[in-house]
């Protein structure tokens, strides 16, 4: 299930709102909340807009909207149990982003904004969190939202996935992750083009002799009878 949520401004990592968690959740997730702050610091203009970062028994899912190049871009991050469906985690974040942008979107880019300026948004987060607490209820409540999400993502497996250890120990930035993802997509496209050309070449080699013999046969028939 969704355990805790944080919202921050992408440009400088300024915390805008977070869920008010009970004492046990605070204790259980203190390490993961620190990891969330690390993620906020690593975001850049070319970072993936949707990403799942696996860490121990939990996964940190984040969504950025508008795109990170926009000065009003906001990142919505939730810590969920690792077994919790990614589709539902991103549907939950998508609902938060729509309501937050509707309520506070015009204020996000303000220079004098104080930390946790929109703490009142916790009311909406808690209400939405309860809807997503049970996966069966969430599937029903968010069915139309999931349809839209699937249209955007085409397939949930396309969401960039990373391991927290890579960020902590290797110092990978989320911009690097985006570059790696783009590079893999480019290489995959090159591979498909190369494979297609190889198939065409193989077909030509296979049928070219047959075609040549056929042309020669018809040429001989033509010479002989015409």
UniProtKB/TrEMBL annotation:
It is found in: Endoplasmic reticulum membrane; Golgi apparatus membrane. Keywords: Coiled coil, Endoplasmic reticulum, ER-Golgi transport, Golgi apparatus, Membrane, Protein transport, Transmembrane, Transmembrane helix, Transport. Residues 6-125 form the Longin domain. The keyword Membrane applies. One of its GO terms (biological process) is protein transport. GO terms for molecular function: SNAP receptor activity. Its main location: endoplasmic reticulum. Residues 145-205 form the V-SNARE coiled-coil homology domain. Signal peptide: none annotated. The chain crosses the membrane at residues 207-225. InterPro entries: Longin-like_dom_sf, Longin_dom, Sec22, V_SNARE_CC. Belongs to the synaptobrevin family. This is Protein transport protein SEC22. It comes from Tilletiaria anomala (strain ATCC 24038 / CBS 436.72 / UBC 951).
């Amino acid at each position: 299930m969704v355990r805790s949520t944080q919202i921050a401004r992408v440009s400088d990592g300024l915390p805008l709102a977070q869920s008010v968690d009970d004492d046990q959740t605070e204790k259980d997730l203190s390490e993961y909340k620190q990891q969330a702050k690390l993620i906020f610091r690593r975001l850049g203009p070319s970072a993936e807009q949707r990403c799942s970062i696996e860490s121990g028994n939990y996964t940190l899912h984040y969504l950025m909207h508008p795109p990170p190049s926009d000065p009003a871009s906001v990142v919505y991050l939730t810590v969920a149990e690792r077994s919790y469906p990614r589709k539902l985690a991103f549907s939950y974040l998508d609902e938060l982003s729509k309501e937050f942008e509707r309520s506070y979107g015009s204020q996000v880019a303000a220079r004098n904004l104080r930390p946790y300026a929109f703490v009142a948004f916790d009311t909406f987060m808690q209400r939405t969190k309860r809807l997503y607490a049970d996966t069966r209820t969430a599937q029903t409540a968010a069915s139309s939202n999931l349809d839209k999400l699937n249209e955007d993502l085409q397939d949930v497996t396309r969401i960039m996935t990373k391991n927290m250890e890579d960020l902590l120990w290797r110092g990978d930035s989320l911009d690097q992750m985006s570059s790696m993802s783009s590079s893999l997509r480019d290489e995959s496209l090159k591979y498909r083009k190369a494979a297609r050309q190889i198939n065409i070449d193989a077909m030509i080699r296979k049928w070219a002799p047959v075609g040549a013999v056929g042309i020669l046969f018809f040429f001989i028939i033509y010479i002989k009878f015409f």
